[in-house]
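Worked example 3. Consider a protein that binds BIS(adenosine)-5'-tetraphosphate.
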Amino acid sequence: MFNIVLFGPPGSGKGTQSERLVLKYNLKHLSTGDILRSEIAGQTPLGLEAKNFMDKGQLVPDEVVIGMISFALEKNPQAKGFLFDGFPRTDAQAEALDKLLKLKQTEIAIVLSLLVSEEELVQRLLKRGITSGRSDDNNVDVIRTRIIEYHKKTSPVAEYYRKFNKVFDISGEGSIDEIFESLCAKIDERI
Ligand code: B4P
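Given these inputs, the predicted complex is written out as C-alpha cells:
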C-alpha cells in the first residue's frame, strides 16, 4: 500500500490536486471535508453537528472525524493505497491515523505540504464562494478564522511527520498543471 497525506492550509489546492493524483496513482481519495459536506447534505445527525463548527470556520471535533476515517478505511479493504485530503488536521488525528494504519500493517509513505501565501488563499476561497455555495467560503471573517485554526492546530501536524522525514514542501502557487508535476515528481521518487 502507498499512502499519501496532502497537507496545506484551506484553499491551498488539496482538493484540486487530489482529484488528479488519485486518478494517476489509482488511490482511494479520502477527503474529510467532502465526507462532512455529504453528511450535511443528507441532514444526518453527524452532519448537523459538523455544520455548527464548519459555518464558523472551526475544526470539527477529533472524535467525529477520526470515527469517519476509521469507517472509510474499513469500507475499502481492497484499496491499493489512500490519499488523505484535509486529514489529519490535529496531532490527535495524526496519532489516531498512525494507529489505524498500523492495524492494516501499513503507514503514511509521504506528506506533501502545499505552501501558499495568506492573501492568495483568501482570494481563492472568496472566488470559489461565488459559485460553490459553501457557507464557509463567502465570508472573509470565516475564511480568516479557518486560516487561524490552521496555524494553531494543523501546522504542528507537519512537525509531527517531519520527525519521521516524511514531509516535502511544494509551492502551491502557479498553474494547477505545474503544481501537479511537482507533486508527481516527489511521489515518483518515493513510490
Ligand atoms: P476542506 O473541505 O478540507 O476544505 P479546504 O481546506 O477549504 O479546501 P481545499 O484546500 O481542498 O480547497 P482547494 O485548495 O482545492 O475543509 C472544510 C472544512 O471542513 C474545514 O474548515 C473544517 O471545518 C472541516 N474539516 C475538514 N476536515 C477536517 C478535519 N480533519 N478535522 C476537523 N475539521 C475538518 O480549492 C480552493 C480554491 O482554489 C478552488 O476554487 C480551486 O479552484 C482554487 N485553486 C486550486 N489550485 C489553484 C491554483 N494553483 N491557482 C489558482 N487557484 C487554485
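Take a moment to read the result before moving on. The helical segments are 14-25, 32-41, 45-54, 62-75, 91-103, 118-132, 140-162, 176-190. Residues 10-16, 32-33, 36, 53-54, 59-60, 65, 86-87, 89, 93, 124, 128, 136, 146, 176, 179 surround BIS(adenosine)-5'-tetraphosphate (CB under 6 Å).
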